[in-house]
Amino acid sequence: MSILLKVDNVHTHIGQYHILQGVSFEAKAGEVSVLLGRNGAGKTTTLKTIMGLTPATSGQITFNNKSIVKIPTHHIATGGIGYVPEDQGIFGALTVEENIKVAMKKEDDAALARQEYVLELFPDLKKYWKKDGGHLSGGQKQMLSMARAFVNESKLLLIDEPSKGLAPVVIEKVMEAINEMKKQTTIILVEQNFLMASKIGDTYTLIDDGETVQSGLMQELIENEDLKRKYLGIG
Amino acid sequence: MELLINLLINGLATGMLIFLLAAGLTLIFGLMDVLNFAHGGLFAWGAFSGVWLYGVTDSFTLAIIGAILTGVILGFITEKLIITPVYGNHVQQILITLGFMIVLSEMLKVVFGPNQLAAKTPPLLAGSWEIGDVIIIKYRLFIIIIGFIVFGIFQFILKRTKIGLIVRAGVMNKEMVQALGINIKQVFLYVFMTGAGLAALSGILMAPYSGVIYAEMGMEFAILAFIVVVIGGMGSFPGSLLAAILVGLAGSFMAYYVPALSLAVNMMLMAIVLIFRPQGLFTAKG
Q1: Chain A residues near residue B179 by CB distance under 8 angstroms
Q2: In order of start, what are the domains of chain B with their CATH numbers?
Q3: Is B176's Cβ below 8 Å from some Cβ in A?
Q4: What is the fold of A3-89+155-232?
Q5: What is the distance, to the nearest Å, from the Cα of residue A228 to the centroid of all Cα atoms in its chain?
Q6: Which residue of B has its CA nearest to A97?
């Protein structure tokens, strides 16, 4: 499989803080790559750096063989990267419908058919179509955020901690949706819930203190008790 | 009763002028997080360019169009030269926009001379109707109607169009709007130019209302507009309308019943709102 995204020795500063201190990994087309690590390791900043929201101060990020390091966020998004932030980024005073519409690049027949397909994936959203985003439950907000990122045909989706704060039954639904989405697009997932990550992910990258510690196949990590204990506190 | 109606019309007309000035300010504040003290300068330029155009063309319609265009062009220049370098820094914004406000005022004196100018009411809108003891001044009614029309147009744009949707989303979460592939800086520029155009419209409408215009008029009204933005809720268009009408009516009634308090009443209104509802009467944030 070809490499869709390559992050090479990326450093990011936020104000005076040196957050990413050498993050490197690759995401192959059609796979789910999971970024793992403790709280504050730099996983969320890695996704934000890919999106250009916290631009890299050094290092290289290539998407589809083109550098996206100095590219403005909106160009990165229109170039084919969808983003589901950790806080879901829902526009609380807009309805579910408006949250979806604001993301849609076109509203032709093909785009509306895509919207219909996405709503079949997240049927709850159809039920709350005219409800304000701010009045949805945590799980519904997560679904809306994922639907909004998926409503355009992105080549790559960055999803930040989709299970955070959700009940187990809702996490199941989120997992089902991600499994469906991975049939159509490449995904980079940040996830603290190792059980979920191990079920969905094809590859992993361990990040600690802003640096990549190790990357490999998810199956190898599942079998490596020492690594899980040392960096994830499990096993 | 007649007195009440007259005070009501006066208050509504003043309120609408303040609303037009505050409407742009609230969007600039809410979406761009920019404290633009130069907004009053754009208002004054609208008044002067409009009055000059009216004198030259004898057409109040052309004067209004010309004033709006002046505001939009000055808005473009202001955003590109003055605002862009200070995004995200409120202290620098206050300093540079206050400075630019003075530059805009002084430039008015250079272009139009140092004295205040008389502004006449167009003949069609001059005079009044008398219904019983109620005197309805035509020009004030005209301002009220224009204010509601502008409010209606902008509500339609904000609620029913894609650009309106983007602006409302941007007020809530700029970062997310960019991550959805929207060039928020371009949206900022359009909003700023629109706000400047509205300020200029307010300026030219104010000119015949007050009868005279002067270079420093911008600062006086900008303060009222800031009060309205705070009372109405930053970024809220309906909030600005309601707050502007409140401020206009309070000023009108106080000026008649308790003249000594007519200037203080706006500050008192703002203080009351800040104590009991610091986010303003309406909120645009989600």
Answers
A1: 51, 53, 73, 77, 83, 85, 89
A2: 2-276 (1.10.3470)
A3: yes
A4: Rossmann fold (3.40.50)
A5: 22
A6: B165
